[in-house]
Amino acid sequence: MLHHDPSISSDPIENRPENHGQSTTNLLSSRGQTIEAINKLQKDYFDAGHTRPWETRDKNLRLLLEAIQDNKERILAAAAKDLGKPETESFITEYGFSLSEIRNLRKNLKRWMKPKRINPGILISPGKTRIVSEPLGQVLIIGPWNYPIQLVLAPLVGAIAAGNCAVVKPSELTPNCSKLICDILGEIFSEELIAVFEGGAQTSKELLNYRWDHIFFTGSTKVGRSVAERAAKTLSPTTLELGGKSPCIVSEDCNLKLAARRVTWGKFMNAGQTCVAPDYVLVHHSVKSEFLKLCTANVKQFYGEDPMKSRDYGRIVSKHHCERLVNFVESGRVYHGGVANIEERYLSPTIMDIVDDNDPLMQEEIFGPIMPVIAYDNIADVIKKVREKERPLALYLFAKDEKVIEDISRNLSFGGGCINDTIMQLVNHNMPFGGVGSSGIGSYHGPFSFDTFSHKKALVVQNSWFDIPLRYPPFNKLKAMVFEGLLG
Ligand code: NAD
């Protein structure tokens, strides 16, 4: 199941400042086992069929659900330590989200596991055809730091529901959450089913030197590309949940007050470190100055006059990341905010008045609490501007005009999004979550997770009492006529 490829060694991304990764020669799981030992354990466990029955999958999901509930306070505390995450935000996005994903899987799993009967058609009748969902085997899940609990657990529960064993590698940049994931999973699962490897890029790279039955990666497009290169060498299938610049379009006819409130909320949640946050805002020139004023008023209403004192405003993950964001702020016209304290990993909610697309803020994903606002003249220009960039993970449009809504939602390609809202495309667990183009490959959540972590096996069950000789040589005119009638 897992094969080592020692030839893989080069990688474009090196020397991350917070890389506390283990050495490549001494990669050990959280309970001190080598990757080779884990591979053997998990392969034997999987091949023995232990992960397959519905009862086992459901029991494991229940165990995880209860463990998350039992560890609620520790989850909120770890997210607060690592990211200064406000308690209510963590409750919703880390704790509650993970629980509701498990509940949805448990509710539907039995039904999704059932083989799906397909019409056999005349060529197979009276035989039967069905699609069987089978587990893939051993999957690798690599997580990011911005929602460090949810973005490891949500794919993991999909992998468990589909009957797989898993190796999990949380982000090194949120060490308290990473340790907590080890503790929670270690308390309820044996490493035969779930093993955790802590560490940074080096640990990831070492794990990626093996062939996996599936790799589920969440992180930046740059690292995702490197993961895909490594996976190609071992021919491991991948799901890549990546990032990019997600546009938000505010047209002149929308409910501007509501738009400003929802955009401000979506942008500054988790201090802007949300993969589906509106990255930049394109506003019709006629309402731009009013929009800027309304967003500023919302920032004050949400986080007070001094957001540093607000219990509802988070921190940047590291000083290094904070410095990068401060450089952006110094490069342009600050309309509101721009107050930083790098030692405290703090940058206030910042609104920037941007004149054109050449601004440094428009060259890469911001991934922080900076909202560039740019004026546009007409929707055709907006479509052109968005198309000039890579296809985004999310897109948001605030408008009333049905033609504009139709134009944008039909003519632009994006992972998912909202009309007259932000972020809410993630709330329904029966909708796929994933990118398109350079913002990702594949999707998950609910039934889409089950499908991502399952192989769809096509099965024909033929009878053995009846055999039409039509398909067998030698062929003749009569057979040719029948085929002509059936297929021609
Ligand atoms: P990242 O790509 O730097 O790191 C993600 C994971 O990859 C971490 O576990 C890290 O240790 C590991 N890693 C780092 N360098 C590596 C390398 N060279 N080879 C293999 N693994 C390596 O991403 P991040 O900084 O943790 O997260 C921010 C990015 O993730 C943003 O671009 C954001 O948009 C994106 N993101 C996407 C989603 C989504 O669901 N689409 C969700 C959250 C974040």
Description:
Helix content is 41%, strand content 16%. The chain has 488 residues and is an alpha/beta fold. The strands form four sheets. A seven-stranded mixed beta sheet has the order 10-13-14-9-8-15-16, sandwiched between helices. It starts with 34 loop residues before the first helix and ends with a helix. 45% of the residues are buried. Bound molecules: nicotinamide-adenine-dinucleotide.
Task: Give me a quick take on this structure.
With 488 residues, the chain is an alpha/beta fold. The chain has 16 helices and 18 strands.
How many β-strand runs? 18
Strand order of the largest sheet: 10-13-14-9-8-15-16
Question: How helical, in percent, are the residues?
Answer: 40-55%
The set of bound ligands, ions and cofactors reads:
nicotinamide-adenine-dinucleotide
Largest sheet: 7 strands, mixed
Mind telling me the C-alpha Rg?
25 Å
- How far apart are the termini? 43 Å
* Low-confidence parts: 3-24
Question: Hey, roughly how much beta strand do the residues contain?
Answer: 15-25%
